Each structure stands twice: as structure tokens, then as C-alpha cells.
## 1
Amino acid sequence: MLAALMLLSGCASVTPEPVGGPELLRQSGLDRAFAARGVAPIGGPVSLDEAMARALKYNLDRRGRMMEEAVAMNLLATSKYDMLPKLLAAAGYRHRNSDATTRAVDSVTGAPSLANPFISSEREHTVSDLGLTWNLLDFGLSYVAAKQNADRRLIAAERRRKAMHLLMQDVRTAFWRTASAQKLRATIRDSIVMAEGALADARQAEAERLRSPIDSLRYQRQVLENLRLLEGIDQELASARIELANFINAPLSHDLIVVEPAEQLSSAILEQSVEALELRAIANNADLREQHYNARIAHAETRKVMLRMFPNLNLNAGLKYDTDKYLVNNQWSETGAQISFNLFNLLSMPAQQRLADSGVALADQRRVTAQMAILAQVHLARLHYGNALQQFRRADAIWNVDERINQHGANRAQTQTQSKLEKVSNNTTAILSLLRRYQALALAHAAASKLQAVLGMEPAVANQVGLPLDQLTAAIGSALRHENQFGTPPPAPAAAPAAAPATLEP
């Protein structure tokens, strides 16, 4: 009673303790240091290969997915021990305030066999035992549960693959947005300064009435429209560097500089038959493989229901020791077997079987639905990639024309045959064309990554995040150069196996 009162009084004294500002700041500093732990510093311009490698190696969301997979692996490892017998060691102390006295009577007459009660046990004694118990029903259920945990571990791996596909797609898009911002930054600022000067000249001409008011206002409106476009582009591209830095876990304040790769997108994948792509997606797609594992877990649940219908056989053996001096044998061993069955299981068996069967039907339906959806995604991703590739080529051609027009305009400006408005307009048009070219390029890379994700393909070194950054970068670069073939292996590498070039593999 005293212990219960102490426990109740302790619970009554618990009050909420909100986290204070100093504690938040201290923990924030520790979290930032933890996030930056082991991240190699950026020593120069970042290529697309290095950005991919840094994202795979240092991205915090990917680290979380890998930890989830590690938890699933540990759950599988611990579930294996549930199949072993239970070996229990126990020791105890017993005390009573009076002797354990016993009376005896004659079995025939019912008269007391002894005049006085006799003591059968000491007031204080210790007991200890070591017993081995094995429940065959628990063994069967534990075996099925371990098989289910093995499938859950595979599900965690497929979810990590899916998250990796999304990460690589985001890194590609952010990289090309950063490249466009880096290339257009100086040109945009020069054009804004030029437009501001042309606007000031137009306003001065209006004040001095050097031209008609309506022409002056139209001139100003065109300049202001160009300024609005230029400032909108500048604002749109301002966040690209921060997004890329976040994906590769780089300091957000770092002036990140990227290097554009020389390789261009290829249409080789579009030459493959849709049927071949469908077969590859069915074999390797992460979502579909996850549904297959869920179906296996549901089927295993039906086996657990059937196992519960069997009698429970319990085998035990143990060594015991008691210090009671009234015992003739203070140390002994005992073995036993016990079989039991819950008769109410017969009543619940039909309902449990229907529940398990409905779970299997649901898992099968989800698998079929996922397969049909993935087949549709293969067709859509292939179509989107073809359209994105065509749009990029068209945007590239338009940019080439606008850039040549801008160069001709610059030559005319040197001979004083072109107005500032025309020069600003030509610069703005060229900048917009270059921006649209980079946007089309980013969309094409995103479409390629989407098709790659639907087909379930990724660099073979994607799981080898323990490689040094330079080796991982080289391996990712080799895989990216051959990704348009989606699985066609590159030439045999001459480097060490740890740094071997990667192919796109499931």
C-alpha cells in the first residue's frame, strides 16, 4: 500500500515541461553538426555526376530511408530468435511470519494421525531453477512471422529504391535550373541595368517633349514589360541554387557553382519496343515488387490462421534447487509435456479464415491494380520523354535563332543604327529563349528519370554509399553516360572493383 501511494503521488506531481528557447538553440546546433558530419567539403565546381553522388551519399532523406531498412533488417534478425526454445533461469527468496504447519488424518477413520501439527517448510528459504521450455505452436507461428518480416525487409528496400529514384529526378531538375541561373545571372543583370537606363531616357524625353506623348508612353510600357520579364526570370532562378544545395546536403550559404556535362540526351530508348519496356518494368518496378511482397505476407497470414487451429504442445525440462531443510531432496530435475487446445477456436475459425482470405484477395487486387497502373505509366513516361526531347530540340533551335538576332543587333548598336529599346528587346528575347531551352532540358531530364524509375533501373553503385566520393562520382558518371541504353553494360573497366563503372541494373 505504501508503494502504491508513493507511485500515485509521483504521477500526480508530473507537469508538462515545454521546450525553452535556449534548449531549442542548443539542440539545433547539435542537429546541424550531426547533419554535416562526414560530408566532404565542396572544393570547386560541381558536375552532374558529383551532384548525383553527393545526393546518394549525403542526402538526409535518403539516410532516413536507409535507417528504415536497417530497422527492418534488425526486426528480421530478432524474429529468428523467437523460434528457439525458452531457457529460463530464476531465483527467489521466500519468507513467512509463521511456520508452515500441517495436520494429517487417517484415511480410513478420519482421526488425527499425530497428536500435534508438524512443520513442513522453513520460514525463510531460497529457491532457484533452470528450465527449458519449447512450445511447438509458438515455433510454427514464429517461423511464419519471420518469413513475413523477411518480406517486410524487402519492402523497405523497395521503398528506399523508390525514394532514390525521386531524389535523382529532383537533383537533375535542380541542377539544370542552377546551371541556367548561373549562365543567365550576369546577362540578366546587365539587361536590367540597360533597361533601367532606357526607361530613364524615355522619361526624360517625355519631360522635355522631344517626341509625342503617346509614343513616349508606348516606349516606356515596352521597356517596363521587358523589365518585368527580366525580374521575373531573376526571381524564378534565385531559389535553384538553394534547392540543389539542400538535395546534396551542402551549406545553404555556399556559392554553389555547377559545370554542365557535355553529353546530350539520346532517343535510343524510344527505339525499343513498348513490349520490351513493359517486361522490364514488370520485373524491376519498385511499387510492383512491393505489392508482390505484400501479397506473400497476406498468404502467410492464412497459414498462421491454420496453425492456430492445431493443439498446443508444450515440452519442458528443468533443474531445481531449494534450501528448505525439511526437504529430503533439495536438488532435483523434472521433465514434462502438456497438450492443450482452446475449444473456442473451433467457433472462431470460420471468421478468422474469412478474414485471412479477404486479406489475400485485397493484396491480390492491389497487385493487379498496381501492375495495370505501371503498364500505363510505361506508355505515358515513354510518350512524355519523346515529347520532352522534341520540345528541347525545338527550344534549342529557337534559342540559336534568337541568339544570332541578338548578335546582329549588338553589331548594329555599335554603328548607332539601333535604339536602346530594340537592343533591350533583343536581349530579353534571347534570355527568354535560353531560359526556355534550359527549362526544356530540365523537363527532358526529369522525363528520362521518370521513365528510368518506372522501369526500375538505377546505377548499380546506388547502394554502395560507403565508397569514397570520388569513386562514387566516377561510377555514377559511367552509369549516366550509358543510361540512354537502360541497362546496356559499358566496356569492361580497368580500375579496381571498388571503383568499377556502374551500369543501370535493378
## 2
Amino acid sequence: MEVILLERIAKLGQMGETVKVRDGFARNYLLPLGKALRANAANKTRFESERSTLEARNLERKSEAQKVAEKLEGKSFIIVRSAGETGQLYGSVAARDIVDVLAAEGFNIGRNQVDLNHPIKSIGLHNVTLHLHSEVEIAVAVNVARSAEEAERQAKGESLTSADAIYGVDEDALKPEDFFNPEADFDGEEE
């Protein structure tokens, strides 16, 4: 199906372009959300008459997104979750959780604007990309920790999942022969 784009869509085209897309994508996403019109003569004339208002609305949304991006620039958000000794979370941190933390800080971000391909399943610092507008995206740091104190230590660069932090062992001092001695008898004594 050919459609006329009413806004810029990543990996598809710019506003005003006529592009060919799959029927299901057009019927289920582009047309219901008002992102495109079917490419026929009536809609082409309608688009040309409304082009200036669409461009103005798009520019306004872009400027609002840039203001939000400036406020988010360099911010880090802390999410406290239960985790095991190795840093594996007992649950996970999904896009919904990130939206909730952002809302608590006063940012109105939709779940579909959070680019998180896989849920976060371990403690640590994670970069998450937010798509505020089709032309504006920003990465924010999400600090997942077991407590607020632990989050502060992680923010300073301290690793909380290394062997030294967990077991009090210096990883650099460990050698392979400390774990396996081929000349040892099965009872652990050397021959």
C-alpha cells in the first residue's frame, strides 16, 4: 500500500514523501495513529493544503522534545531492586519501570518512547535511549542497585559484582594453579 507520511518516521521517510509499506503496517499503525494518509488524489491535495500546519505542529513538537532533552541531559536515575550476591536481579527492570521513575522526577515520557530491547536483569549502570521525537533522542543513565548507598558507590565507579566486592578476594592475585594442580592426588595431596 502506498501512503503519504504526515511526519518523519525513522527508517521509512520524511514528511510529505509517498512510500510503499506493507498493508498491515499501514492499517494497524500508520493510519490509526494519524502518521500517514492513503496515497490517492484526494489525500494528496488534502496534504498539500494542510502541509504548512503539519510542518508547524511538527516543529513545535520537536522544540518541546528538545527542551525535555536539555533537562534530561546528564541525569542519572536510581532504581532499587532486590538482587542476589552476584548482581543478578530477582526480577527485571522493564520500560514501564523506567517510565515510572521518570514520572516521579516530573518527566512525562511514554512507554513506547523508551528504547529497551531487553529488560535489565543485573545491577549496575545502564544507558537507556529515549526517543522523545522522531528527530530527538537522548541517552540517560539508569543506576540499578540493591540500595541507595549501593547506588552511590556504583555511581563513583566501584564494581559491586566483582569477586573482591563479594568475597573479599583480589582477582589480580588469583592464578590458574591456585584452582587446579595436575600433580595432586585425588585426595588433594601431592605425590
